[in-house]
Amino acid sequence: MAHTYANTRSRAAAWLTAISHTRAGAMRWGVVFLLSLIWIGGGLYLWRGEGALEAIYRTLSAVSMWDKYFDAEAPLLELVRFAAIAAPAVGLLFAFSGQLGRSLARIFNLGAKHHVVIAGDSPAALSLALDCRKHKDAVILIAQALPDETALGLRRKGVIVLEGDATHLETLRTARAHYAAHVVAFEPDDTANLQIEAAVRRLVGASKRKPPIGVHVATRSAMLLKEAREMRSAQMRSGKAVMNIDPKPFSLEEMSARALIQTQSQTVLGLAQQFGQDRVHVVFFGFDGGAEAVAERVLMSLWSAHFEAPRLTVLTQNADIAEAGFRARHREAFAHPHIWSADISFMSFDWDAESIGHDVLDKVEQARGKPTALVVSIGSDPGNIHLAIALKRACNHRLRWPVPIFMRESSQSEFSQQYAKGDDTEEFDAYLQAFGSHQINATRARILDGWLDRGAAIAHEHYQKGLGERDEMSMKELQAATRDWSDVLETYRAANRAVSDAAMTKVWDAGWRPATKEDGLKGDTSPTVPDDLQERMAKREHDRWMAERLMSGWRPTLEGEARNNDLMAHNKLIPWDALTEADKNNDAVQVRAAMNVARLLHKEGFVPRA
What we know:
The radius of gyration is 31 Å and the shape is elongated. About 50% of the residues lie in helices and about 10% in strands. The strands form 4 sheets. The protein has a 6-stranded parallel beta sheet with strand order 3-2-1-4-5-6, sandwiched between helices. Helix 23 (about 530-550) packs across helix 24. The chain is α/β, with parallel strands linked by helices. The longest helix has about 35 residues, at about 75-110.
């Protein structure tokens, strides 16, 4: 990642901020102490025969250049003279260097451009600021209630901290937000983040910005995220909007869910095959925003040609309320059972009043079957840890459920780093895998550079250009496909995100897995789909695509109705056998797209899986 977000002035301001807030190290104080020791010690030694008070007087007189110190020929006398002058001068320079550096930093910041502005004082916002500084970006953080020690630590890293309300125009003007490369609205309140985006729009006005300023708006509400993205698409379709800013709504919950599916899908599929299951079955303990994001991604992406449609079971304290909310947010996913209906069931379980034991496991098995994986996300990190530990004990008793337990955490803890880092033993048993921490998700790569969308851009390129009929794309073509992603409408973005998230599932279906150092083999960088699997995988891709469209709010067209993007009605939401050959080929194209997505994300290549 060679590119940095900064210009010369913003880079100088960041450097001066770091220097001026650096602790006075041992060397700095050592220099002052050494000069003082030479001055006082040497002077007292020189005038030791004059009596104690006279010796002290003559030693201190070295500062005023007393006559005896002029035309000094004795080396020690000359050394004392210069040390006496240097000690206070160096001390004053060190004392005022911090203030001088801060003043110069403010002056240089007046010309800052192409930098990163982050509004918010949450742990995620601070993580992003520090990660940007690791990549040498110039960062201005706008915060209202940041503790002094935290602010000092950030400034020592070169982050310029401004106290103020980022929803106010003047605060953003001071931060030079209208000249930034990226502005990140990272307040904990969704409304405040939308107000920050609106304030940036007013600040920029009709001024031209090329490239446009990326305004990344954090949202906690899944529905608000969807609406914000649709508004962006509506502006693009109208062609009237001045694209001097590029709004990019994002959700940390969605990011963590997508990353989990992309990295763990092959593990889950392998377990389903090992258990002899007919479908992947994920059981959720808790159903907060993070858990729901994972559930959505499983239903949209975890479709294998070797299994039936994925199954979800949710255990939560208020099952009826959780189910009603999920069905309301995804009405179309349950309204058309002739093509697909989400296989998700909600059960009541009060983890505050009930313990994890065989009765809970029995209830799940009898009603829904054995699980392939568990997800723990009840809304608090301590609660997730407590519940995950209890589940691990119950699952490992007589190897009842030897499955991965994905434990959500908002912030990395000592526990997760020691005991929830994946399957690190040779035994076939249940294990803990933490996911979702802001230290991993709130990064420059994921938020500013959109790394999770790289694969989606490639999938869209395949669909646009019909690349399923030709040889695989070169690596240069794969990288070039991501350049025009910002011009893609949201409806296509959402569809291709799901294709990208399903890439490793397609690779698994085709009989491959990523190469590792332990293999001792050079990976194949062009994995292929066996001929006897191509139609089967294309059919399953069509099923997956229909599930994603229905989950995203699309519906089948009525009899005689044409496709209508504004009304979210699609004429291809029909069974596989009703498709034309051209339509079936489009699904084959997306299978090829998924394989190429995997190639880009795993440059080490692939080896045949056992």
